[in-house]
Amino acid sequence: MTAINYHLDELEIAKNKDDVSHINPVFSDSDKIILDIGCGIGQTFIAIDPVDKMCVGIDIDEDSIRYGIEHYGDKIQFIYSNAKKIPLPANLCDFIYSRVALPYTNIPKTLNEIKRVLKDDGRVWFTLHKKQTAIDNIKLTIKKRSPKEFARNIYVYVNGYILKYFHKSLPFLNGEHESWQDAVSFKKLMVKKGFDVDVTETDEHMIAEGYVHSLPVQSN
Angle of helix 107-117 relative to helix 183-193, nearest 10 degrees? Predict the structure, then answer.
C-alpha cells in the first residue's frame, strides 16, 4: 500500500463515525490557528471541514504533502517538515493535534516544540499507542518470519519502557523514533513539558488532551 492510499483509507475512517477506528479531535470556536502534526494528505481537516480556521499541516512524506497541496491546498497550508523543529513562529497556534503521528517521533523533543509553537492558553490532543500494540506487532512479525521487522518491533517495545521510566526516546538504527506510551508516565511527562492533560483509554484508543500551563519547559 502506498502512503497516498493509506491516507485515503484514513480519510474514509475519519469521515465514518461508525468505523471502530474512528477518532477525531474536536475544534472549539476559539481555535483560530490549528496545527496537525503528521497531517498526511490533510484527511482529518477534510473530514472535520472546519470553518473560519487557519489549518496548517506538517508531514515527513513528500508525496503526501504534494498530493495534499494539489487537492486541498485551498483549505490547508501544507508544510514538508518533521516535528523535531516545527517551522512556525512561537506562540502562534491555538490548538495542536496529532491523530496518528506522535508515537513515531522523539516524543520529549516534539513536546518541547509543541509547547513553543502554542499560545499560552493553547490546547493539545494526541492519540497514543498502547503497550499491547507493540506486543501484537512482535507476535505478528514472528508469524511472518521477518527478522528485520522483528528487530524493529523489539526496539519499539524496549523504547516504550525507556520512555516510561526515563522520559527519553532512543532512535532505531535508521535514526527514526517509535514507542508505546504508558498513560500514567505520559501524563507526568506532559506535566514536565508544560501541560495539564488527561489520558483516557478505550478498547480502540488512548487519547491525551489538555492545555498549556505556566511551568517552564525542561529541555531534555
Answer: 40
Fold of 3-129+181-212: Rossmann fold (3.40.50)
DSSP class of residue 68 equals H
pLDDT tens for residues 22-51? 999 999 999 999 999 999 999 999 999 999
Q: How far apart are CA 42 and CA 38, in angstroms?
A: 9
Domain ranges of the chain: 3-129+181-212, 131-180
Report residue 139 as a C-alpha cell: 507476535
Picking from 205, 206, 207, 187, the residue whose alpha carbon sits closest to that of residue 197 is: 187
Give the largest Cα separation in the chain, rounded: 50
pTM: 0.94
